[in-house]
Amino acid sequence: MNTARSLTAPSLSVHPAHVRAATGLRKTLHRIPDLAQHETATAEAIVHFIGDFNPDEVITGLGGTGVAAVYLGLTPGPTVMIRCELDALPIEEVNDFAHRSTRARISHKCGHDGHMAMVAGLAPGLKQQPPARGRVVLLFQPAEEIGAGAAAVLRDSRFRSIAPDYVFALHNLPGYALHQIAVRVGTFTMASAGMTATLEGRTSHASEPEHGVSPARALESLLHDLPNLVGGSQLQGFSLVTLTHLALGERSFGISPGRAELLATLRAEHDADLQQLSQRATELVTKTASAQGLRADVQWSDQFAATVNHADAVHEILQAARQLGLPTQQLSDPIRWSEDFGLFTQTTRGAMFGLGAGIEQPALHSPDYDFPDALIPTGMALFGQIIRQVLGDGNN
């Protein structure tokens, strides 16, 4: 964690009216959060806001509920896509401010409301001052939190008509100084996958456990062995296995258990490492269960590719930050959490960067988190500068 003090708000050439509009949108979005694959109200709010700034094309229902707004430059050229996320989290809001969530047990605790506000906030400027060439696509992607949205967007046949030459995204980073830009070439966020391992034996009376087949001993072994899969391996980068849930038998004093369930999240710096780690975990569960006379089933979900930043895209981010006087930090290690933006960077020159949300800011996914509105002009200015660098200024 960066321990520097919060930085003074930079002086950015972003129209105050555009910032006010984006900030108002952020609060509106915070009040009406939607879970992944159900972002209908959120998408409608985006379409309504963008519609006031006359995009050349609006695509709705992209990959489910996604929205893409297209702004053409004055002459043909490359396509720059700026991407953000529509979905919220199944977390109860504990804050009591005026813009608190109106949806029970759903709230924006990852800052996607702020990310959307920054990207939508580019629309007024693009209407007034289109790029010199090419086009800009503002992409509002569904279902990032479950790792399904980017894949759905890329599968949508309409995506081919807006396929970018460059793609950029940001994520706010609590624990980093406000307005600080954090980026790196190569892996920025890690690949990950959720494993559900089920062990099936046979129940018996608790007084006669010898007549059943209990998964207790196998579960005990897996609790020790699964996290140790990363030790002494031939994996090329950082990896981690985190046990997240386990259940054994029924809540009863009279039944010796016959079933157990274990959930774990596997993470790796590289996609190939995650594939190898997942294979090892499957083999370990199967072998451990067989040795105890149990049946095993392993299922995978919430699968994320690593976000691998292209050097050219990172160069544009750093150049834009310097032009705006924003402090930068080139990270030595990847961010440990995952983001399905990595599917875009597999085929396109692109990069994700972090935007410091403040040293004392509650962590992502905390019930008291709220996106800092002070970051909205910073994100708008940085994305706007990247667009001008790649596509030119239509007024020049």
Provide an overview of this structure.
This protein has 396 residues and is an alpha/beta fold. It folds into two domains: 16-189 and 306-391, Zn peptidases (Aminopeptidase, 3-Layer(aba) Sandwich), CATH 3.40.630.10; 191-304, Alpha-Beta Plaits, CATH 3.30.70.360. It is 29% helix and 27% strand. It contains ten helices and 16 strands. It has helices at residues 16-31, 40-51, 112-120, 123-128, 149-155, 216-225, 271-291, 311-324, 342-345, 376-391, and strands spanning 57-62, 66-72, 75-85, 133-141, 166-173, 181-183, 186-189, 191-200, 204-205, 239-248, 255-256, 259-268, 295-304, 307-309, 328-330, 349-356. The protein has an eight-stranded mixed sheet with strand order 1-2-4-3-5-16-6-15, sandwiched between helices. It is elongated. Mean pLDDT is 95; it is low at 1-8.
Element layout with pairings:
Elements: H1 16-31, H2 40-51, E1 57-62, E2 66-72, E3 75-85, H3 112-120, H4 123-128, E4 133-141, H5 149-155, E5 166-173, E6 181-183, E7 186-189, E8 191-200, E9 204-205, H6 216-225, E10 239-248, E11 255-256, E12 259-268, H7 271-291, E13 295-304, E14 307-309, H8 311-324, E15 328-330, H9 342-345, E16 349-356, H10 376-391
Parallel strand pairs: 3-4, 3-5, 5-16, 6-15
Antiparallel strand pairs: 1-2, 2-4, 6-16, 7-14, 8-12, 8-13, 9-11, 10-12
